[in-house]
## 1
Amino acid sequence: PKSIPTVSANNNQKNIQEGEHAIGLELFANTLSGFPAIFKTLNSDFIVQEITESGEVCSLTELEPLVDRELERKEKAMLENTTVTKIIEEDDNDDDRGGGDANESSNNVVVVKEEIFEEFKKISGSEEDVERLRAFLNTPGVRRGTQPLLQVLEDGDGDGGEGKIGILEPLVLAPSKDKEHRKQLHAFFRQFQLDTDSVTLDNGHPNATNGQNLCIRVHPSSGGGKKRGARDDDNKSKNNKRHKKATPDTRPKWPADLPTTLQFVMCKSGRDTTDALNQLGNLLKCNPKRFQIAGTKDKRAVTTQRISVYKYRAYRLASLNKACKDIKIGNFTYVERPLYFGKSMGNAFIICLRNIDERLKETVIAGINALRETGTINYFGAQRFGNVSSTTQDASETSTGTTHKIGALLLNGKFKEAVDVILQPKMKESTKIKQAKEKYLETKDAQEALRTIPRFMHIERAILEVQAAKGRENDFCGQLTAIPSKMKRMYINAYQSYLWNKVASERVRKFGINTVVEGDLVAIIDDEDNGKTAEEIQKHSDEAYDKGLKRGENLKKVKLVTAEDVSKNAFDPSDVVLPVPGHAVIYPSWAATKADGEDDKTLDGKALFHELAMNKDGVDLELTKHSIMEFSMRSYPGDYRRLFLKPKDLECEFMRYDDSKIDLLKTDMDAFVKKNMKNTDEDDDGDKKVEKKGGKLLAAKLSFKLGAGNYATMILRELTKAQAREYSSH
């Protein structure tokens, strides 16, 4: 392995390299030379596409809610099969007859076909129920596609109120003790997409006979009646003024046979995932937490991923495309299960490296070949640690964040210091935010800070809101526990990642790249998964998620490599893992080499993690120094991470261009958003022709795939030897 150079003619480059060293990015996998390059000049220079469990690369191809159009076709067919239009005389003004559709003329009425009632009579056997059902189904608002009638309701003072939708009561059929009979009744009403349930009537109810009180209850589609499980305490409703003027729920019922989860594809540009979901939630007037994802995606990129949401129809989501900026959603489908974190196989990347020196073209090619052959060390990337470090830090630390440092403070119970670091101005924050934080540091006025710090800064605002409460200025523990749970875990996870990076560097330094040595840990295939298809394994994972298994109860199975395993080449280097420290993992125990001077010495992996944490940060990974469990390692089971990383399907293509402001890569957005593509042509298939014979500038287009949790920036780091830089306009 090659170490990061410690001497550089460029002081900024030297500072960046020292900053990487501070988070454990200490080695490279090969000794080849790197090259300077710029990435993320434009959002389209960094394309990320989620890979589904089946291995399919996620893409946005259709914005229209085609799945709902198919449902509408089926509903229309159902309506035609069950109803008929009758013409009534103009002098017949009986508004209580059949359920006239809003689209029908005043002397036409749509009623249920008589054959339907004959079918029901064969199942029910009750003439009385048949007549009651006829009146019920032909009442406006009961069947899907019909609207409730407007009624003039009296208000509490006796004056005539405005027209309001009348309340539709559910239909309660005659009691039945026969379970199979009740099943037939439930199935009968599904053709109308009406909800049914079973209720037990009081002995005094008109339908209760001879103690047979279990009945089928049919709910109208407009939701006017009482909800399932609603209390039948009419006295409370009558005496409660809040119920007096309440309007009934007239939203249509969810189709009976339709899965309750809508899954769709979201493509966004220059927006982080949380921000994009917040906008969708605001437009739908729902809590953004209703959206489920398999993982978050980069902000400065064009990313495509799946989203799921409970009980929202596709046409409602599709209508948001006109109002969304830099977001497009489509490819709608209804599924049985929602997404959850980790429910993907990884991501496909297409990355454009610009401003490459023409003379280093062969260096790029050599680096690509080396990546295909040896890969790199599977470090946690700098994004894990936050890349907006405090402006008060030393220059050597400005390329890395402070997230892991805050994690160490939390584990040590140094809550005041943690709050101070969080509220420090950061280098990449806007001038307005920096000024707001600097003013707070001068005045310690939390109320004033809340008026100036933007709402999207959830962590800072959570701390300040508690701090602004009377008597809680010094309640630093309470201020930190007010931070959203995912963000609190982020700090501890970053510290775990920092320790992993450090130990990974030590392991590779001693035993080399792509090696399997005695004492290593390797991931082994679960015997229960042998012979199973990918779908069956995913189903098992879904079931484990449904049962609420904690992460520590579902860790990878690992074993220690023995000398016999090494002699037999029983394991591939890709099987080697290192533990992310926690209370539920086991640690490697390496045999020392002769170069260490002691033949019998072993390098205890657990001791290495613990000594590093204690000596560097004073953190005890086993003992808790305070009573806050969410800031204790006892609440983190740990995990296992593969030590070596090889990108799949790695390809490189050179492109020439003249203008750095033009897009060089085609994205999912391009099909739906018109752009001014200066200095570019398009072929018959719509692909951009950016390479020109006269182009003065050289770029490299990289495409590859990585598994979940792996960092594309680590591939760029290895290829360029940490000389690739993210574009900045400052």
Note: The radius of gyration is 32 Å.
## 2
Amino acid sequence: RQDTSSCEPGAEHYTNMRHLHRAFARARSTLASTPLDKPLEKPIFFDMCHSNNAARVRLWMALKRPGGMGHAIESRMLTYPDLKKADFAAVNPLKKVPALILPDGAPVFESNVILSFLEDKYGDAGPRLTPRTPEGRAAMELLCRVHDLYIASPNTTAPGFSHSQGAMYLSYGWHGPERGMDLPTRAAKIAEIWRQLCWLEAELEASDRRRAMVSRLHLDKFTRDPDAAGGPHLLGQLTLADLTWFPTCVFMEFMLPRFFGWPQLFDPAAADPAPTPFPRLAAWYSAMRAEPAVEAVRAEIWAYWEEMEAAGQFKPIVDEIAASADPTLKLTYGVPQAVQLNYQQPPPAGKGTGRYINQPDLGDVVDEHVAAEVTMRDARELHPPASLDALGFALQSWPTKCDDFEDDDAVVATYYGEMMDLVKAASGAERVFIFDHTVRESGNTNLNAAAGGSAAPVPRVHCDYTASGAPRRLQQLGAEGIYSRLRGRVLTPEDVEELAAGRFAFINVWRSIDDSHPVMQQPLAVCDEKSVAEEDRFTYELRFPDRTGENYSLRHSRAHRWYYFPRQTKDECLVFKVYDKREDGPRFVFHTAFSDPSSPADAPPRRSIEVRAIAFFDPPELEEPVDAMRTAQGEPFAGR
């Protein structure tokens, strides 16, 4: 391999071009099935200093054996113009690096194929870079395959012909129409990169948990590979997966923070503009850089991109992003915002926390809250997406046919049935009862709606039920009369008691009812319950004339992990649990409206509807005939 100082565009990379042309000629002779006049002395590897796919092979040769593999493999450095020459097409018809010519003249291309061949052929030259067990090798192949399909190949879930990584550096302005892309395509491919990094981080966390379990339980026979235990690499031990991902991560390290506003992904100590969202990946990347040969390859790639930045390659991308007025195109990931949420103040001695509703205040409860700063994360960045089982909340696309949310009868007749189906789909419940709904508008001040009116958003952290209050609320609703569409009658107290004996959950569904705009004012935030300590919760009483309801309030903690779904549209529903009888998962999702500092000054008012449902997961079988045509239009409580 030539000195890397000659890696600038247009530099001369070969001291004897006749050797290169002779290699090309022999490769063409092989492709034409013409016998070679003389075999090569050793394979020839065609490299390019800034190619992430070629760099993984370069890493293999540097790490396989002290001093490299030059005794067995000849390396030659190409520039991008060399790829366009007809001679190189004989080596790799795709006109890409890396490429390898075997001694008999046969060409080998595709970096994963080259790496697998070299490790198979020269594995004994140094430490093995493939796991010893079938399970370990399968895990390695999966990591390599995901990288090659979804990051470094055009075969991604994002639109267009280019690989996802190209979204970081390809543009019409620099590369022309053949290799450039428009901004929506770029945004889709940038999203693909984020998704795959989320997947990789989750895989590393899961691998850590598996190794910890094996160690804790002394289950050595289940160890995927003895060499992997406790190592700092993707699979514990150094494998081809590390060589595959590292050079591409150098691209990401250089480009994503600099041109797309991402945090420093691979720096465990970085804090500006935010800590890394991938701490396990950052630790791996730092461990890789501690190896001098790896750091040398990073320096080669980094120096090239610094030169290209100085030459102006990234300017068309930066200008394109700056000129865009489309707020739906997301290019920055992993940077949450600081917002103020209103947390309830615990009561003074001798008083409770709560408020009186539709009756005089007797002064024995207080209702005070204080603003506290929290970190608000974009829930659309969660991969896998949020679900009721994992986080207690989920976003569902669920259009509605209800066209008048101010008409309670129309809401009950049309919307309730739609929401029953949604709650079933989101939760897996067998039966669902919808018992209430509230329309809220940001211009209002009253938190409780008057009959036929709307209420204000609730700008305080709360959860609608407590562990003792939710079962009591179910009994109250049963006493008031829940109409069952399946049974065609109002449920009896005995029916309600049977349902309460199994698992049930109170679930809310929140959506915008604005036909023209997404939610840009007072959006709804939800908290990951795993971040809430039990001692943070305390009871808040809602004292109605005929009953007392119980909410949970929350003491502020920096540990709370808050999320929201920016620009939620009318067709999107936020579904979240406010009580679940089952105790081995999310049960109480705290939520609140909040002022979003990223909202425009002229953001339209928020108009939303929330419905409240009870979901039953193992109800008793019905013994009576069901009249599917019977409905309960106009009933105060309707369900099925």
Note: The two ends are 73 Å apart (CA to CA).
